Amino acid sequence: MFLEMTIAAQNIWECILLMLGGLGIFLYGINLMGDSLKDLAGSKLKIIIEKSTNTPLKGILVGAGLTAIIQSSSGTTALVVGLVRSGLMTLAQAVGIIMGANIGTTITALIIGFDIGQISLLFVGIGAILTFFISKRKVKDIGRVCLGFGLLFFGLQLMDSSLNYLMSTYKTQTEALFTALNDYPIIGLLVGIVITAIIQSSSASIGILQGLFGASNMTLMGAVPILIGANIGTTVTAVLTSIGGGSESKRTALFHATFNILGAILFMIILYPFVLLLEPIDKALGGNSSMTLAIAHIIFNIVTTFVLFWFIKPICKVICKIVKGTPSVEEEGTKLLDELLDYSLIKKSPALALTFIDKCMNYMGEIVNKYFTLTLEYSKSNLDTATKDAEFYENMLDNFDKRIHDYLINITLEHIHSDEMTKISKYLDTIKDYERIGDHCSNICGFYTDRYKRKLELSTDSMQDLEQMFNEVNLMVTNSVKAINSWDSNLANIVEETESKVDDMHDVFHERHNHRVSMGLCSYDNSDYYDELLVNLERIGDHCKNIADTVVGKNRALENNFQTE
Length: 565
Known about the structure:
Layout: H1 2-8, H2 12-41, H3 44-51, H4 56-70, H5 73-85, H6 91-104, H7 106-113, H8 120-133, H9 137-169, H10 171-183, H11 185-199, H12 202-215, H13 220-233, H14 236-242, H15 247-269, H16 271-284, H17 289-309, H18 312-322, H19 329-340, H20 343-348, H21 350-355, H22 357-380, H23 386-412, H24 418-454, H25 460-486, H26 489-518, H27 525-564
């Protein structure tokens, strides 16, 4: 009532501005809620996807559940394309998640179907208190979820009231517009595609449609095609994510677009009977138009998934023929693993199979070097692509670790010489050290992302100390990778000597920072953040020393054997 009285007092241009403001608040709310839910779930999302998608049916369930959590089918699809790019997932695994994501995204429309707009500001208030007055990270994330949830409905209220006023003021024109949509479904389909492609969120465009449908003389015959078009428009995000990737990521994005387009074609063909089915549902809901559209969205995605589930293989075959292209850098790495890790060779000649591991290890070492270089650069300036690149390197290292580990374990099941068993043990230790270095780089990048987001500043002395430690650890990473690639004892000895230096730096810099905080020269908010950076850098140094110890140990063993002979 308050909003309606406010709008009634404004002129048309102010009303339009209020509607645009409502749209902005709504979009911000839905993105804030999704991002916060994603932060609460943390890295578990990626692990769930990696471990639970060995069949399309499991993929559908995972995709639906994951999208229901993060409230964004576009976000899920973008994550999947990233995993495909890094080799952690195949196209066959990805298709199930993409299909399930379309089901999971219907939760947002279902939530909007419940009219809780009158208490939206209560959620905004609670969310603001938790976000700005509580220091604990998880509580802050919960607060941001509440804040986003409240802003979502408050934005919808602003839009609904603005639309009501505009449509009552220009009754003749709006009736003509909605009559055209009711009479020409293809126009509605195009409108849904364009709007969703622009705002890149089917949940947002369908939420807007729910408000518009309830406030106008639009019929289900006019509204449903817009809803169907929104499912095509949302594929733009996956297409953009695949740009710059290799053939596998482009195939994944094309599958997403193909799946949604085929579903749209199916429902446009049966549009009339589909609307006839929805009409008694609408009556049973007492004219709750928002809930009717939410149910229509659920039916559309479940039926599309069920029908196209049986045609996954032929669709994938066609897509593979359409997208041929050259592999990306990450796909070349995966291709290298496929070529060198020949499981049939393990039975024939375990010793020969073991000789191919060196090349895989060298490639993994290159990834580690590149990842730490990225981390070092990100510590100096806020790079736009740093988060995306960090995720890529992390996924690549996880992929190499898993593939090489499984291959080596299979070799141990055969009858091999004790020297070969020792070599396998060293390989297993090294790939684990590489993978752990990647984890610590991810931690550091995460801290810097948070720092840039919260605009945390360190004192000049703190920055200089960190830069000095970064440079020493950078040398350790570079030298340890070179040492293990060439089994160079001299480089390995340098790494071992530098590790003691890095340990001393950690202790000294920690004490210095505590002193600066106690003297008021550094903010207390920076204390934990700074200490965590020191810890992660020191642990990267520990893993570099482990690699160096492997080199020195092997060369000492060779010297002892030579002396014995």
